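Re: beginner question about structure tokens

> Can someone show what the tokenized structure looks like for a real chain? I only ever see the sequence side.

Sure, here's an example I had lying around. Input first:
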Amino acid sequence: MQFLIQQTLNGVSLSAILFIISIGFSIIIGLMRIVNLSHAAVFVLGAHIGIEVIKQTNSFVLGLLCGSVAMGLLGMVIERLFINRLYGKQLEQVLLTMGLMFIIDDITLFFWGQPIRTPSPALFSGTMTIFGVMFPVYRMFLIGVGIIAAIVTWLILERTKVGAITRAGADNAEMVQAMGINIKKIFFLTFTFGAFLVGLAGVFASPIITMQTGMSMQFLTLAIVVIAVGGMGSLPGVIIGSLFVGIVDSFGRALFPGLSYFTLFVPMVIVLMIRPQGLLGRIGVVLNK
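And the corresponding structure tokens:
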């Protein structure tokens, strides 16, 4: 029973990180129709910048701010200089963002090289007892962060004008543009917000995950599985997909370390065989060009 509780809690804390990574990824795909393969590389770079700031200033909050804002600014540059020229050109987008992923990974390798990690903030260090199981306070804090991120994202998407435009643009961008709304400005803000979120996730993850070059593909794969399982264009779908991937990955690595990808992808394949649009995805979002 203790093993069950321990791995479930570990999986849920990982799910919180995956949710913050995947929600920006999902919005970018759903609204902009861009599979941004550099998304996870931005996650790793944001984590490295945040860790470096924490080392120099001994302030986790400042590292969190610098890592997320720096990645938001990087997202602005990428969208203005590159993505903005390739809307509607899927093959070129894939090649571009894949190239950007390798470039960002090489930049990270050049400046840091070695795997790095930062200690948990002093306020959230130590352990606590949950159902008789000793569990790190910081991981429990991450679960709380994931819940807050889900609530804030829901409020933005469902209760603000920008959120309404974003949801409408995901369904029919041409109609939104025909109504006089500058859809390219919305694209720009969406891409920037996604980069900001993934930078935030990188710094939050740095006390529990040793950051190193080459992790981009691993987290990109996890984010794609989250969206495939939960369904594109669905906030509840991203939540369910994140929980699924986090918990399955946690138990898979603990029980079958040599088959961790097998235990992750087989359930995903079964879900997609039954519901190609994901558990909570909409068929229109999958088919819409």
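Each token stands for a local structural state, so reading them left to right follows the chain. DSSP finds eleven helices and two strands in the chain.
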